[in-house]
Amino acid sequence: MTNQVMKGEDLVKVAVAALEDVKAQDVLVIDVRDKQSITDYMIIATGTSNRQIGAMLEKVREMVKAQGVRPLGEEGKGDSDWVLLDLDEVIVHMMTASARQFYDLERLWQGAEQSRAADGKHHSPEHGHEHFTKLNKDQQ
């Protein structure tokens, strides 16, 4: 069977259910269809250990295969703090809390639209940077 058996939204539901089944934490789905053409959705989930991340990978792989979807690829298996499962229309990122905080994919992908829409306003006085605000208060 091909990867086109399921639509992206349905694939997201299956992957999220699989992650929840193995107690993944802080599961987040990001719709990136308007931001790039590589995939339609990204799912980010936290595992408490590398062992749990391995279980998350196995469960998602097992449940999508049961629906006739064959993953295109995997990266970061073994003792990795970040494992990626490419399901074509959906990419699943499974990470330890420290890796998730370090790489901050939520900000990267959700911020893309915000920075495009901000149109430079983040440099205006009403959108000052926090450290400048604190510096100005300290000098008063």
UniProtKB/TrEMBL annotation:
GO terms for molecular function: ribosomal large subunit binding. GO terms for biological process: cytosolic ribosome assembly; negative regulation of ribosome biogenesis; negative regulation of translation. Residues 116-140 have a biased composition (Basic and acidic residues). Residues 114-140 are annotated as: Disordered. One of its GO terms (cellular component) is cytoplasm. It is found in: Cytoplasm. Pfam families: RsfS. Keywords: Cytoplasm, Repressor, Translation regulation. Its main location: cytoplasm. HAMAP family: Iojap_RsfS. Belongs to the Iojap/RsfS family. Functions as a ribosomal silencing factor. Interacts with ribosomal protein uL14 (rplN), blocking formation of intersubunit bridge B8. Prevents association of the 30S and 50S ribosomal subunits and the formation of functional ribosomes, thus repressing translation. Interacts with ribosomal protein uL14 (rplN). This is Ribosomal silencing factor RsfS. It comes from Pseudomonas fluorescens (strain ATCC BAA-477 / NRRL B-23932 / Pf-5). The gene is rsfS.
